[in-house]
Amino acid sequence: MSAALAVRGLKAGYGGKHILHGVDLDVPAGTALTIVGPNGSGKSTLLKAIAGLVPALDGTIQLGDTPITRLDARARARLGLAYVPQESNIFRNMSVRENLRLGWEFRPDRRTGAPLSYKLDEILDLFPEILPHLNTPAGLLSGGQRQMVAVASAMMLEPRLLVLDEPSAGLSPRNASLLFEIIDRIRGTGLTLLMIEQNVQLGLAAADHGLVLVMGRVRRTAAAAELAADDTLAELFLSADRRGAPAQPTS
């Protein structure tokens, strides 16, 4: 199976300080990979480096057959990499419909491909929970609904790879479960998915493969179900926290 995303020897960080120390990972096309690890292990830095928001200090990133290591975030988005950050991922003063339209505007084929109305109907089939709120300012929605709008807007791009940074962060258990039901629907479309998730069991249940990142290094990769059933995973997190994690931003 070909890789939708291939990362080799990736080093990245802030202010000249490395947070990632030679990360390798592959996401086969049509599969989902969830990255888990202790706080401060570099998970968000890894996703931002893949999305083009943090520069790679060394190593390579390839989207399908295209090297993207030196491309900026906008160019990566136009190639089909859709990144949904943990925070500030919607325009609160704009309606839900306007937020979704912005996602569609990044499509390189928006003038020649399927019309906006067709894509909007397709996305709302995946996100029926936001249909009644299309004309509501996104900032007035609940936290769970706002996350749905953020992911739906990214889906309007019709991405080759959807990257989610802590999608359940700050959500109630009910809203987190509802959001992951939608993520399961997205997986059913055959889209390739890469995410990090604070709720380890929830995140691994939504993936084919799992990767454990500890202090900027890959500690383990395995089938998601195998990792979820591993009783030593919790101890791995605790021992890493006891050793201390980098103080730089970002889980």
Structure notes:
This protein is an alpha/beta fold. It has one domain (3-243): Rossmann fold, CATH 3.40.50. It has nine helices and ten strands. It has helices at residues 43-51, 73-78, 96-105, 116-126, 143-155, 173-188, 200-205, 224-228, 232-243; strands at residues 3-14, 17-28, 32-36, 56-63, 66-67, 81-84, 161-165, 192-196, 209-214, 217-223. The protein has a six-stranded mixed beta sheet, with helices on both faces. Strand 1 (3-14) and strand 2 form a beta hairpin. Helix 3 runs parallel beside helix 5.
Number of helices: 9
Work out the strand percent. 25-35%
CATH topology, by name, is Rossmann fold
Mean pLDDT comes to 88
General shape: globular
Structural class: alpha/beta
Give the termini distance in whole angstroms: 30 Å
Instruction: Kindly state the percentage of residues in helix.
Output: 25-40%
- Named at the architecture level, the CATH assignment is 3-Layer(aba) Sandwich
Q: For this structure, what is the CATH class?
A: Alpha Beta
Major pleated sheet: 6 strands, mixed
What is the H level of CATH, i.e. the homologous superfamily? P-loop containing nucleotide triphosphate hydrolases
Order of helices and strands: EEEHEEHEHHHEHEHEEHH
The number of E-state strands comes to 10
Number of spatially distinct domains: 1
Summarize the structure.
The protein is α/β, with parallel strands linked by helices and 251 residues long. It has helices at 43-51, 73-78, 96-105, 116-126, 143-155, 173-188, 200-205, 224-228, 232-243; strands spanning 3-14, 17-28, 32-36, 56-63, 66-67, 81-84, 161-165, 192-196, 209-214, 217-223.
